[in-house]
Design a protein that fits this description.
eight-stranded antiparallel β-sheet; Mannose-Binding Protein A, Chain A; mainly beta; elongated
Length: about 575
């Protein structure tokens, strides 16, 4: 098992995408909605991977803070103070910082009356420095969606651009636009809001930023409106292959930095200019669509009251947390046709006979009703999951990615791995450090583990001694393996010539990571200052919800995908 997990970890470096992190920063754009006199309610829904995770939430201007110790797998709602919404077109410190001592995922929820919008807050690790802007013309969009000319108020005639500094230092921001670029200097963790005019092409920054495209009052029916928030992905996360979920009354908007050809499904195929603002027509009703672009691009579905960023194939994941904030939620799952019958909801298989194949692709999709938060995962391949709530006034989007790496045992969020601790410490300090990192000071228990450790050390290219988890008993002077808080007898040894020496010369064990020396063990005084090698066990995410919220194969079934939302 260690071999498989080590290989998986190495192959996944630089290719995986998930929304787990230790540090987050976000902002709450203005939500006007139909119920303007009603006070807004802004909350964070935070879920921890490990028990006893300390979470701190603070506003950057230091006016409010929150701290709590969270259980594992149980979403906790944090209500933010009134006045946190970003109204003004100036730079402010109305940003919210979220920090966890262990990995967490964060969803923001903004509500004003029945206008609700959710957003998966991306950790700082997922932010970027270059974002191409989707050029959405609000007036044309509304007239296209409603099929008639409509008067649009001046206040709501365009989208807003929200830029959040993701670093604790000044950050130079360039808005690429015609006829002249605009440059701003953002303070640490500050937020800037701008009214767009359709001439903005890109956002470039010296350091990482979060970028949102938002509108406080997008029309959807009966003179009512709904706030939308679209957190953009950096251009480095673009792809050229997409499986779009089937929805009623939508258009497809394509963002590209070069002239591009789009094809597939039933979309209006053809060549589109760089930074096009055109909405592509989709037949209605439709099933899910497979779409190709000649170069990497960003695609989003635009409908009455919502904008939904599509998950490209390169960001498909093996496991998703699917938060449900209302009754009557629906989920669309997209999976490879050959493996679609192995999709799990919590600890049970998704029971469905209504999967629909996506034309010209190896994928299928299914529509699933949900009435509570669940985990949807696949043991052997990557999938896409979208959650849509309140089907009368749709909001939602991609579910929260927990892990990109499939695993037959469940939702693997932390793979088993070896790690070099580069700070020299004593043996007791190294032992405690590994435990604080939810691991153990590694010691090979058999010849296979010895060889796996040797392969890992060869890849690291180290040539100095490292502490391993072996030491002598103070009472008997017998050697034993210290695995966390547990003590194990020795079943395997790999001592070098003349080792181990007498107890006076060393009560703890190290190894010399040099293949010419055979990675043999050597006894050392425990107070010596050495680097060390930690081992972290695999950790699987389990949702801690009441038993009546768990998936039941008898009542969670896929609906016919030919009848989209």
């Amino acid at each position: 098992m260690l071999t498989i997990l080590l290989i998986t970890a190495m192959l996944g470096q630089g290719q995986s995408w998930d929304s787990l992190g230790l540090d987050f920063v976000t902002a709450f754009p203005e939500n006007i909605a139909f119920y303007y006199p009603v006070n807004p309610v802004n909350t964070l829904k935070i879920t921890a991977v490990y028990a006893d995770t300390t979470v701190t939430v603070s506003i950057s201007d230091s006016t409010w803070s929150y701290e709590d110790t969270l259980p594992a797998g149980k979403p906790v709602i944090v209500t933010l103070p009134q006045g946190i919404e970003k109204y003004n077109f100036v730079q402010t410190l109305q940003t919210v910082k979220i920090e966890g001592t262990d990995p967490i995922v964060v969803q923001s929820v903004s509500q004003r009356g029945d206008s609700v919008q959710t957003n998966v807050v991306q950790p700082l690790k997922n932010l970027g420095t270059f974002y191409s802007m989707p050029r959405l013309n609000y007036t044309n969009m509304i007239n296209t969606l409603f099929g008639s000319e409509r008067n649009v108020s001046k206040r709501c005639s365009s989208f807003r651009l929200v830029i959040i500094n993701g670093v604790d230092m000044g950050n130079l921001i360039t808005i690429v636009k015609k006829p002249k670029n605009i440059i701003f200097s953002l303070d640490p963790y500050a937020v800037l809001q701008l009214q767009t005019d359709g001439t903005e092409f890109a956002v470039h920054s010296d350091y990482k930023v979060a970028v949102m495209l938002t509108h406080p009052c997008v029309e959807f029916s009966l003179c009512r409106c709904n706030m939308v928030v679209n957190q953009l992905y950096p251009d480095t996360q673009w792809d050229s292959r997409f499986a779009a979920p089937g929805l009623l009354n939508v258009r497809l908007h394509l963002t590209s930095s070069t002239d591009i050809v789009a094809s597939g499904g039933n979309i209006q195929s053809g060549t589109f200019e760089a930074h096009s603002s055109k909405l592509l027509s989709l037949p209605s009703p439709i099933g899910s669509q497979f779409i190709n672009t000649s170069d990497p691009a960003s695609l989003r579905l635009v409908g009455l009251g919502f904008i939904i960023e599509l998950i490209p194939l390169s960001r498909f994941s093996a496991c998703y947390l699917v938060p449900v904030n209302s009754t009557g939620a629906m989920v669309i799952v997209i999976a490879e046709t050959e493996y679609r019958d192995s999709v799990y909801i919590d600890d049970g298989l998704l029971s469905s006979t209504t999967w629909s194949t996506i034309r010209n692709s190896e994928y299928s999709s299914v529509l699933v009703p949900l009435d509570a938060t669940h985990v949807i995962w696949h043991p052997s391949t990557k999938i896409a999951v979208y959650v849509f709530e309140d089907t009368t006034n749709i909001y939602g989007g991609p579910a929260i990615s927990l892990s990109a790496n499939p695993d037959p045992a469940g939702c693997l969020v932390v793979p088993s791995k070896l790690n070099i601790v580069s700070t020299p410490q004593t043996w007791p300090e190294s032992h405690q450090y590994c435990m604080l990192k939810r691991g153990e000071l590694f010691s090979p228990g058999n010849e296979t583990e010895q060889m796996e450790m040797a392969d890992f050390l060869n890849s690291e290219g180290l040539n100095e001694r490292l502490w391993i988890g072996l030491r002598r008993s103070l009472l008997t002077l017998e050697w034993y393996r210290q695995k966390g808080k547990e003590v194990h007898n020795m079943a395997h040894t790999w001592w070098g010539t003349g080792e181990p020496r007498v107890a006076a010369d060393g009560m703890c064990a190290s190894l010399f990571p040099n293949p010419l020396m055979g990675f043999h063990w050597k006894s050392m005084p425990c107070c010596a200052q050495l680097k060390s090698i930690c081992f972290t066990n695999a950790h699987y995410f389990t949702l801690d919800l009441p038993s009546n919220n768990k998936a039941n194969n008898s009542n969670i079934n896929g609906k016919e995908n030919g009848n989209p939302l």
